[in-house]
Specification:
about 70% helix, Tetracycline Repressor, domain 2, Tet_transcr_reg_TetR-rel_C_sf, repressor, Arc Repressor Mutant, subunit A, mainly alpha
């Protein structure tokens, strides 16, 4: 008796539908943690709440992050990477000098409004860092990295537009970041307290371009 061979050439392999990919799960956890931590604060929030918000088990969270502090530090990496991209985009797209500073200020104000959750989270990081040495050390190192990156952007911007800044790049970065954080806090408390052009006017004044 002879059999008929069945050729599988050209056929698609069966689709495997299993657990979500590790990176997909990690992203879901980070997105949920951002929402929970910014709403509840890092101290008050629990890993159980993050897992529930992500639609995952607590075990799935712990399979990607060793602890709540580890999750906090991963979110901080996301936050700082976003800030660096925003700063580069702002300073690389404006032209002119005085108008450029006003344009930069307007874009930074937009970033403040659209990134309100991140601003709340940064404040929560700072508070959490006073109680967790690992978080404080990591935040300090990453803020230094951010300041260095922003300082380089500011120095390049000043050179391109012929601006004589009253501070060196590092000091200017501290001023810009502190101004951004401070205006974000004031705006979060009273959204009408910060005029849309205030950031730009302050930057222009600091650069002697009023």
């Amino acid at each position: 008796m002879t059999g008929t061979a069945v050729s599988t050439t050209g056929t698609d392999p069966p689709v495997q539908r299993g657990r979500p990919a590790r990176e997909e799960t990690k992203r879901k956890v980070l997105d949920a943690a951002l929402a929970v931590f910014s709403e509840r604060g890092i101290e008050a929030a629990s890993v159980d709440e993050v897992a529930a918000a992500a639609g995952l088990t607590k075990g799935a969270v712990y399979s990607n992050f060793r602890s709540k502090s580890d999750l906090v530090l991963a979110l901080m990496e996301d936050y700082l990477a976003d800030r660096q991209r925003e700063a580069a985009a702002v300073l690389d797209t404006v032209t002119g000098s005085r108008q450029a500073l006003h344009d930069a200020g307007a874009q930074l104000m937009t970033a403040i409004h659209t990134g309100a959750r991140w601003q709340r989270l940064l404040i929560s990081y700072a508070v959490h860092g006073t109680r967790d040495p690992a978080v404080r050390a990591a935040l300090r190192d990453k803020r230094r990295e951010l300041r260095s990156s922003v300082a380089g952007l500011i120095e390049r911007f000043a050179e391109q537009h012929g601006l004589d800044l009253p501070f060196d790049g590092e000091e200017a970065a501290v001023v810009v970041l502190a101004l951004s954080n401070g205006l974000a806090v004031e705006s979060s408390i009273d959204e009408h307290s910060v005029p849309e052009d205030l950031f730009g006017r302050v930057l222009a004044a600091l650069a002697g371009q009023r």
